[in-house]
Amino acid sequence: MSLIEKTFSNGEVIIKEGDTGTSFFQIIEGSALVYGGFGKNDQVKLSSIDTGEFFGEMSTLEGYPRSATIVAKGAVRVVEIPGEDMDAFFEDDPRRIAELTKHLLQRLQITSNDLNEAKALLSELREADANKKSNSLFAKIKKHIDMYQSNKNKVTEADTDPLRDIFAGLINDETSQLRQYESGKIIYDDFEFGDCMFILHSGKVGIYKGYGTDDSTEIAEITPVAYFGESGFYATDLRGTTAVTKEDTIVELIYQEELASIFKFCPQKIRAFLRLLSYNLRKLDVDFLNTCKEITEAYNKK
After folding, report:
1. CATH number of the structural domain 163-268
2. Do domains 4-85 and 163-268 have the same CATH topology?
3. 129 vs 104, residue with greater confidence
């Protein structure tokens, strides 16, 4: 395995938006900043990355250009992992599989929260009359306008990914923990502690708040191939939602403590699983940027 340790000084670019990525990184000392539109008049700081965190993994997993520029904040040491050495990186320390998975899941949760906030602001903007659109409302939506302006070249549909075919070839391997449910069955409920997440291989699942009560609301519909119940993978809280099958369904259970074993017997399944998370994150990013675009256009029409 040819891991490469690199050092960067304050303000130095580690990876550049738009470049082709064939490796990913983990910070072993220091921190870095994430920018959209870096070096342009409308550049925006998107987030920060701290010691122990990964970046650049989406380009490596899916072969897409870098989606942001990463800049050193102070002195930074990183380890660079070439894509062809990803399996060796996991073999050297199988705990890294769970670390990278949790990293992707947490980014998905953050982006999902950002998307929900943007949708709420868009609704508020559309309902506001002309004399209410000024200072207070603009202050709330400015970051979304800036986000669109610095990332408008990325507002496109995420390409369809052949994930169904990838998982179809792995569904009956010896590591699979599959469960079949008839339509209308509860997979988990909101007062249950989670200890795993699920991959939906076939069928359809509704995610509900207040299921079985007069206030029951469907907040999401899951279709293949997708994950759900991810809070059970990295948290010990009550699930807070109920998952109910809407037709005959097959799901696969994924436990954090079993990822290393799955990798040992079927490394291609771990690669496919990480690719699924990356694809969903990329798709969520596109939805968020499209909503920021709508906010920008709606505000400018007022």
Report:
1. 2.60.120.10
2. yes
3. 104
Neighbours of 130 (CB within 10 A): 8
Judge contact between 200 and 251, C-beta under 8 A.
yes
- The torsion of the CA quartet 284, 290, 295, 301, rounded to 10 degrees, works out to -170
Task: Supply the pLDDT for residue 273.
Answer: 87
Amino acid identity, position 32 = A
Domain range summary for the chain, segments of one domain joined by +: 4-85, 101-157+280-301, 163-268
| Closest alpha carbon to 55 in 106, 112, 92, 91 | 106
Categorize the per-residue pLDDT at 300 as very low, low, confident or very high, splitting at 50, 70 and 90. confident
Give the pLDDT confidence of 79-99 residue by residue, as tens digits.
Answer: 999 999 999 999 999 999 999
As a CATH number, domain 4-85 is 2.60.120.10
